[in-house]
Each structure stands twice: as C-alpha cells, then as structure tokens.
Amino acid sequence: xxxxxxxDTLGELLRSGKQxxxxxSHEKFLEAVIDAYRQEYDVYEEPHLVRDVDGxxxxxxxxxxMEVLKTWDWAFGQTPEFTYKIERRFTWGTMASELRSKHGIxxxxxxxxxEDMDGALRGKLxxxxxxxxxxxxxxxxxxxxxxxxxxxxxxxxxxxxxxxMDS
Length: 167
Description:
InterPro entries: aa-tRNA-synth_II/BPL/LPL (IPR045864), Lipoate_protein_ligase_C (IPR019491), LipoylTrfase_LipoateP_Ligase (IPR004562). The chain is of the alpha+beta class. The protein has 2 domains: 2-77, no CATH class; 82-166, Enolase-like, domain 1. It has helices spanning 10-18, 26-41, 60-69, 72-77, 119-132, 142-148, 152-166, and strands spanning 2-4, 82-90, 93-102, 105-112. A hairpin with a 2-residue loop joins strand 3 (93-102) and strand 4 (105-112). Helix 5 (119-132) runs antiparallel to helix 6 (142-148) and helix 6 (142-148) packs antiparallel against helix 7. The longest helix has 16 residues, at 26-41. It is elongated, with a radius of gyration of 20 Å. The two termini are 21 Å apart. 10% of the residues are buried.
C-alpha cells in the first residue's frame, strides 16, 4: 500500500526539499527528471520545449490524448490502493482525515478529533465518513451534501475534502 503525502505545487515540493538540501532548485529538479528519463529510456537528445502556440493541440492524436488524461477513469479509476493523509486548520479547530482508496473507490475514511469535540459534530463526521465509503474518489454525492446541511463545520470539512480529492 502506498501512503502518499501530497504537496500542492512543485514549488511547495521544492521548498520542502530545501529543508533537507539547500541546493534544491527548480532548474536542478528539471535536470534530475531529464537525466532520469534519459537513463530509463536510453534517449540522449536535447529536450524539446512544446508550447501551445506551436499548434500541437490541433493534432487529433495529441488533442484526444489530452482529453483522455482529464477523465475520472484516467485520473482515479486505474490507481493502486493508497492512503491519503491530510490535515487542515479551520477557525473552529484542526481536522485530520485519512482516505483509503483503490481503483478510484473510497475504501474508508476516518477523521481524527479530540475527545472534547462536540458530540454532535463527531456524530456528523462519523456519518460523513460512512457515506464516503464505496463512493467514487472525487464524487459530488448528494447524500453526502445533505449531511453537511445545517452545520457549517461539516460543510467546511466536505468542501475541503472535495477540493483535496479534485486537486
């Protein structure tokens, strides 16, 4: 099982890497990716920069390939099992969640909360976690949205989870 810790941007990844090695930069990262690609595929030509202005999107094969890459099945449906651990600070407290998914289906969801958390909120978080089980990763489930109605904190958590799954 792959346990993933997600970083929002390449810049965030590089900033994180600088904690371990001050020489990490965007350019060095690109060089490392190019070198690894060359070694893996035994290709040593100079990289070719493809810009949208070059008209590549008009080539049917490339345009169709780009459309396939945007589909749910490509993004999630073929994924191996993984666990996604996330945390966020809200105005009302900090929430941590663990989503376990395989082939784009949520196997489980759990929330970490403190014992002193409002019992009604804990119950709604447990209901949200239960409703997520078996759903497609990144789904908009109307049943799930209904749980969030009437409690701004649950709505905050649901909005956060959807944004995390969509990114």
